[in-house]
Amino acid sequence: MVASLLLRGHPLIRLGLRNRGLCTGILQVTRRSCCTAMPASTPPGGGLSSAENTTSVLSTTDPPKYQRWDEPGYRKWKNQEEEILSDIDPIISLTKEILHSNRYVDGERLTFEDEKIVVDRLLAHHPHAEDKIGCGLESIMVDRHPQFRHSRCLFVIRTDGGWIDFSYQKCLRAYIRNKYPLYADRFIREHFKRGS
What we know:
This is Protein DCL homolog, chloroplastic-like isoform X1. The protein is an alpha+beta fold. It is built from 9 helices and 4 strands, in the order αααααβααβββαα. Helix content is 50%, strand content 11%. It has a 4-stranded antiparallel beta sheet with strand order 1-2-3-4. The longest helix has 29 residues, at 72-100. 10% of the residues are buried.
């Protein structure tokens, strides 16, 4: 920006202020105020140590960005967050292992134990569980998503031979909203990629 002002013949340069050293002072103040947020009353030569400069930047009148641990609402939120995480962590770990390890190959049905956990802890909480199950649940399968071939997901295999995918994250979000209604929105916003 400074170079473009010099090339275009800025009015300060045309007035000859450059030769008196004023242009240098203006550039230093402008540069310093943009880069280090020094107060406008600071002389062009400096004047504040880096510790004083940091203090002046941090001592704004805005409220702190993050709540403090000693605030009752924050402690309550952190305790609740920890409870939710400990509640859902086992099913998340199992689901990720099912989807992302060599435990199951594409198109393979889950074992009886894994299927029972997935149905009870996930599918039962899906917002459209009845539609997913349809005429009846025969089993749960792992396979590639028909549209997103790089993604593996869980499928409901119905008693009539049809099958449909379901999102384990939708199941978890619905579970959290039902069990922890006061903290669900914040938890989902902070811990899930998509909060829908």
